[in-house]
Specification:
The protein is an all-alpha fold. Helix content is about 45%, strand content about 0%. It is built from four helices and no strands. The longest helix has 14 residues.
């Protein structure tokens, strides 16, 4: 197996182990993040790509009444402050209204 094939295999594995509705991947919680998200305060979950943000939220959504909105900040990377805040808030409220 040459290096190109190995890189293709690694990419395939990474793409197919992402959290989604059919992957069945459960979040491993060594730092007790689940209880922090269950607290009676609003919060923001952020982190690097592949850190487990989506898996954490999908695991919590399936086991409780957690409400989450996913915002891909890459969609807003060219928008300056304060317009970016306004655009994200519009997205948030549109999600609340199911528009």
């Amino acid at each position: 197996m040459d290096l190109n094939e190995v890189n293709k295999l690694v990419s395939f594995i990474e793409e197919n182990t992402r959290a989604d509705k059919v992957s069945g991947i459960e979040f491993i919680d060594p730092r007790n993040f689940k209880s922090k998200v269950h607290s009676r305060q609003n919060g923001v979950v952020f982190g690097r790509r592949g850190a487990g943000k989506s898996t954490l939220l999908k695991t919590l959504e399936s086991n409780s009444n957690i409400f989450s909105i996913y915002v891909n900040l890459e969609d807003y990377k060219d928008i300056t402050f304060p317009n970016i805040i306004i655009k994200i808030l519009i997205r948030f409220f549109m999600s609340q209204l199911k528009i």
